[in-house]
Amino acid sequence: MKRRFFFFIPFIVAAAVLLFGGIVMWLWNNILPAVAGLGALTYWQAVGLLMLTRILFGGFRGGSYRGRGGWSRGGPRWREKWMNMSAEEREQFQSEWRERCRKK
Question: What is the reported pTM?
């Protein structure tokens, strides 16, 4: 039974990519030309755009949803670390990150 299921996985993935490509094309062609003055997409351009955005913004690794906090790849360990810090350690941590993220 499991062997048959694994045989269909590539077909299911391909069908999902093709379906989402159609959805991306439909949304792009019905919204963006009117709002932003952009040209229409072909179906294969939409599939390519979908794959490109997945690579650039989503990656291909899995994450886990953890309720109100959203998606997480590191789990709750950062929250636990933060909760165990003293007020001085938190302030030092925040000031270090402010310094790192400051525009140069």
Answer: 0.50
